[in-house]
Amino acid sequence: xxxxxxxxxxxxxxxxxxxxxxxxxxxxxxxxxxxxxxxxxxxxxxxxxxxxxxxxxxxxxxxxxxxxxxxxxxxxxxxxxxxxxxxxxxxxxxxx
Amino acid sequence: xxxxxxxxxxxxxxxxxxxxxxxxxxxxxxxxxxxxxxxxxxxxxxxxxxxxxxxxxxxxxxxxxxxxxxxxxxxxxxxxxxxxxxxxxxxxxxxxxxxxxxxxxxxxxxxxxxxxxxxxxxxxxxxxxxxxxxxxxxxxxxxxxxxxxxxxxxxxxxxxxxxxxxxxxxxxxxxxxxxxxxxxxxxxxxxxxxxxxxxxxxxxxxxxxxxxxxxxxxxxxxxxxxxxxxxxxxxxxxxxxxxxxxxxxxxxx
Lengths: 96, 253
Fold this sequence. Notes:
The complex is a heterodimer of chains A (96) and B (253).
Chain A: H1 2-17, E1 23-26, H2 38-53, H3 56-59, E2 64-71, E3 77-84, H4 88-95
Antiparallel strand pairs in A: 2-3
Chain B: H1 2-14, E1 19-28, E2 31-39, E3 44-48, E4 56-60, E5 67-72, E6 81-86, E7 91-98, E8 101-108, E9 115-123, E10 126-135, E11 138-145, E12 163-169, E13 174-184, E14 198-200, H2 201-224, E15 229-236, H3 244-252
Parallel strand pairs in B: 8-14
Antiparallel strand pairs in B: 1-2, 1-13, 2-3, 3-6, 4-5, 6-7, 7-8, 9-10, 10-11, 11-12, 12-13
């Protein structure tokens, strides 16, 4: 009788132990953040344009200014400013 | 009697700590992706999913007809970057890529001095406390909970006062936010090639920055051939703006 009792007790423990105890919780985070800092980038462009138009080096060549922002996989960025004597429309036409 | 004691302890043994899996939504500047923190008795690791999307968009500024073009480079390759935590030494073994080559490097993390404040907020059902950290040139704000017995965060945030539910830098350019918590039985262990050369973080950083610039140069080649002239380059580091060896070098100067 004692053995039967122990056997039953082990079975009960086994039932709990091998029960699926995975818990998955989907969370809703209440806070949202501002994604775009585009306006800030635009204002940088304006400053750059102003400084370049007062510069004798670039002012005559300033048909079109292009700002390229390269975002790398680690979130670092390389920002490059280019210019061409063509207008932007002419330039984009030439590369199509 | 000994059987009864055994029976009493069996559930404790059987229900002891499972492995945890935490999924984070991550934003690194304009890149958005998911990341996973896996914690078990044996190991702790973190990795970013690789985004299949590669976005490139043109935007015209309002003022002068000049253009701003945003380009994401190298995010569409199926290469997960892993980090394996070695808690005792405050060191992380990183598995990363340089071009197409897999690279292993150790990162011995500086001491992270978390400053816990009294501010609280609820994220989902968890009560979180605010903590602040200055790490490699950026100031981070974290929201952590002690409801779950885990003292880790995403990426390189270790020795945390609790489980990091949300963390971001002051400018919110870099942002991690937990969106899923689950307990699972166990993880598949990462297999690491023991013959691989392991380089230092300094060496990796130098090579990576050089490789990034080369990638940018390659992508601009066809435009420059059409008469585009380079006026200026700005390099903005990502999550880590300054490293320990750079601070040391500055002190020497």
